[in-house]
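note to self: dont lose this again. the chain is below, predicted strucutre after it. 143 aa total, dont forget to put it in the shared folder this time
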Amino acid sequence: MSIEAQKEASRRLYVEVFGAGNFDADDEILAADCVSHAADAPPRVGTAGIKQQAALLRTAIPDLTSTLEDQVAEGDRVVSRWLGSGTHTGPLQLPTGTVPPTGAKIAFGEIRIDRFENGRIVESWFIPDRLSLWQQLGLVPRP
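---
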């Protein structure tokens, strides 16, 4: 798979799955046994975590759009910086409980590194800007 094809697959994950809510597209992009590494949780194996995260965000922010801001690739890795934005009009399920709709316009970023094998993402590392999101939702005070 060419570097350009890898970049396109990473882009599709944000635009199609998160932005458009096409959860089936992740089965074309991710290996069934892919490993996702979050900064604050143990690794998760499989595609269920991505589908769950996309559904959670799209429930809370039905008009969610995702915009690819930057992308760099080398070898079997693609690094992407994307921005999600929309209006918080649905309940947001967090580990600490449900955040009721605020009607707030929100925007948050994420940086993600995807590793490819055989044309699919097999491993990812991601760091979402949760602090910015929580501040916009009124969960954490702004400085």
